[in-house]
Amino acid sequence: MRDLYLLHLTSTSGISLLTGPLPLIEAMAFVDAHVLPHGWQHRYRGVVPADEAIIHLTVLPPKDGPVPGNDLMVALRRAIVCDPGLDGADDARTRQLLAHVDAHRPLQLWTGPEECLLGECDHDERGTRSRCPGVVPAERLCTVCSVIHDNGSEYGPEYLLRVAWPCTVITTACSRFQITVAAPAGGR
Ligand SMILES: [Zn+2]
Ligand SMILES: [Zn+2]
């Protein structure tokens, strides 16, 4: 891993900043010069550069094909970058739109018998798939519009607010940039 760190800075009044990445020596110098004299707390967080992250990510084979809904996100991003009213990826308006829209990604939920969901069943038609065929797509949620509370429980996160994907941010962006939203494939 290359020597890069994010600095997570918090003030006594509760303001929180994430800055960097910086090499560790520069990050420490930054803390000495700018953080400690003003009474802020700091924590270092290691960063894995994108080209090295790809090596880790590709150790395991891809799961059951592309993430459902990802094709719509790709089409929407392309439509924003190519919009004749904007000036491509160099336009600050394009970047603002891309960053806003990108957060509203779909989260696919799955359903099936508990044994199959936990990977403890004896079904062996699984083949190269990571999931038992008894596990089928359920609803899709917007990851930022929904409130997902993860307390590390073995039963997974708790969905305090379920906002279906595509949410209104995505449907509004799709209509603005003339992308057709297909009806969701999975049942609810
Ligand atoms: Zn959303
Ligand atoms: Zn099964």
Give a written overview of the molecule.
- With 188 residues, the chain is α+β, with helices and mostly antiparallel strands.
- It folds into 2 domains: 5-56, 2-Layer Sandwich (Dna Ligase, domain 1), CATH 3.30.1490; 70-176, no CATH class.
- Helices cover 30% and strands 21% of the residues.
- The strands form 3 sheets. The protein has a 3-stranded antiparallel sheet with strand order 2-1-3. A two-stranded antiparallel ribbon has the order 4-5.
- α3 packs antiparallel against α4 (92-103).
- The protein starts with a strand and ends in a 12-residue tail after the last helix.
- The model has no long low-confidence stretch (mean pLDDT 85).
- The structure holds zinc ion (2 copies).
- One zinc ion is lined by residues 116, 121, 123, 132, 134.
| Number of DSSP strand runs | 7
Strand order of the largest sheet: 2-1-3
Task: Compute the average pLDDT.
Answer: 85
Overall structural class, as computed from helix and strand content, comes to alpha+beta
Report the biggest beta sheet as strand number plus sense, adding barrel if it closes: 3 strands, antiparallel
Estimate the global geometry from the Cα principal axes: globular
Helical residues, percent: 25-40%
Number of helices: 6
Number of domains: 2
Heterogens: zinc ion
- Compressed to H and E, one letter per element, the order equals EEHEHHHEHEEEH
Give start-end ranges of low-pLDDT stretches.
none
Query: What is the C-alpha radius of gyration, as a whole number of Å?
Result: 21 Å
Strand content: 15-25%
* Spatial gap, N to C terminus: 42 Å
